[in-house]
## 1
Amino acid sequence: MNKSIRQLLYMLLLAFALIYTIYTLYLNLFLDPGAADFLIHKTEENRPQNIPLWLNIMYIHVIAACLAMVSGALNFSSYLLRRYRRWHRVNGYLYIFAVLIVDLTSGYLAPYATGSKITSIPFNLVNIAWLWITITALVQIKRGNLFRHRRWMVRSYVFCFTNMFIHGISLIGQHLLGMEYRLSYICGVYGAIVVNIVIAEFINRTLFRHPVAMTRLTTEPNK
Ligand code: HEM
């Protein structure tokens, strides 16, 4: 693919990640810090017993998720990778740390998930899969395989959009298909997982189809 189209697509991703991060932080920490709009849909069975604790864990979850989204987007910059390799590495570990925090907090949130076991099971499976995929990306670069590292990072990074797809699919279910909230949310959770996987494979088979020329990177300074 043409270099300028790649650069344009990357700038769009970065802009989107930044705007979505600001929106998510504003919505969950300032506009609706009590998550009233979300908790209203929970039944007795799914309602957390300790709401203040649930909220605090949710804040940590959201902040770590936003950190993963931004640091992940920055690490797809080939410009930053070429010029500031050490920074890419540090930022990469920051991304893994953020994924770990999202996973741990999600482990607490999952048992109270709207939809009960039907959604808490896929949430927990994503927890395991996301960490495994991210660690695989790290193992690949430790083995010096840049091509596979990038492909596994794409598979990992798409999971940063899980919440966006859950709510997007849920909204379509409610407003276009007339579903009640709970069913639309369940469809959102399963749909988001499928969409994440499909998008990652699409990107890997189009944008990242060819191996990266290692020489292009190794000739650049390692700042
Ligand atoms: C990385 C981007 C993510 C963001 C911005 C995000 C954000 C949020 C937010 C704001 C909530 C509170 C409820 C809501 O408004 O949806 C939430 C709940 C939750 N998230 Fe995430 N999340 C992300 C990724 C993930 C991932 C990858 C998982 C699974 C491994 C996950 C698991 C959960 C669970 C289990 C809940 C509780 C759901 C419920 O009570 O029904 N999140 N997330």
## 2
Amino acid sequence: MLHRLLTVKILLVAAVCFIAVAAASLVWQGSTGLLVVVAVGQVAVLLLLGLLGRRQAAHDRRRVRDMERTWKLLAQIRTEQSEASRDIRRAVESVSKSVVTLDKRQREKALERHRVVITAVREHKPRFDRITEVVKSVATVTAENRRRLSKLVQEQSGVEAALRRAGRNQYSQVESLINLYRDLDPPFAFPPLAGWAASPDLLRYLYELVCTEKRESVVECGSGVTTLVMAYAMRKQGEGRVVALEHLAEYAAETTTLLERHGLGDWATVLHAPLVEVKIEDEIWPWYDPAKIPEGPFDLVVVDGPPAAVGEQSRYPAVPLLRDRLASDAVIVLDDYRREQEREVGRMWQESDPEWTASRLVHEKGTLELRTKAPE
Ligand SMILES: C[S@@+](CC[C@H](N)C(=O)[O-])C[C@H]1O[C@@H](n2cnc3c(N)ncnc32)[C@H](O)[C@@H]1O
């Protein structure tokens, strides 16, 4: 492009020079001058063409040289490229060959190892199974032992609580017994307590109840030490009487002897009242013969018989059959209230007269106290 522009410029400069020379010749020399001008112009054109030709040739030579160099370079690149491709092909072939070889060897090794493992597993399977069984049974035993242990811990805390309660109860019984001996000051020891007889806490409660509330007319279901203790209370307050109902002649005689031995025959009577069938709301119950019971009114009823062996809720008839013989402010005391049967008896009594006041006393065997008139 540059080369072409230069050529055009040179031609323009030459043309301008030629026109200038021609114009000068015409002005100065006339028609002769024209011939000179044409000749000069031809020479100038030839010179110019020669000049341009040389320049063009030099330029073309340079281009040819460049092209040759480029060609050589391309050939070299092509050669190098084909050599490189050949090398790469060879490398790829050798790599894939070695990969195939390597894979095959590894596969064989892995297969061998697999066969060894499978054989070993087969050989040891019975042992594994036994171990699994042992592990399972150990786990079961451990879980079972854990259950047993927690049950034992529970039981132990239950036993500890029961022991604490028993300890407190023992102390309370000893305290009641000491106080009872001090208050009554008996010439003979009492029969063994808390077995067939009432416990010291109930005996002391009865003694206090009679003395503090001046209970004077007592009827008792089931004779024994309670009869003796309440007879002591009557003698202390100087008035009143205890009537004890006893279904067995043997124990009626025994309690009578006990009273006489303590010099209390005037304060308590044991009535031998064999059990008979009594009717309460169309139901038959075995109970002390009502014909033998005094008219009352009784301000204290102690229910400690007939024994459970006679029948379920054997103590129930006491309230329905003695209700008409109760004083207006009577107290009914039911022993063994910890037992299910006595709780049922107490519930039936309270249902029969919801106006009565009920208190559960924390005694060794449990006591229910019912008052026909609420205490003021
Ligand atoms: C639960 S016990 C209670 C007797 C009485 N309330 C007491 O606490 O001593 C009831 C029955 O024991 C019987 N009993 C009375 N004296 C007895 C004695 N010395 N030995 C064995 N049992 C006797 C009588 O049959 C009585 O009805």
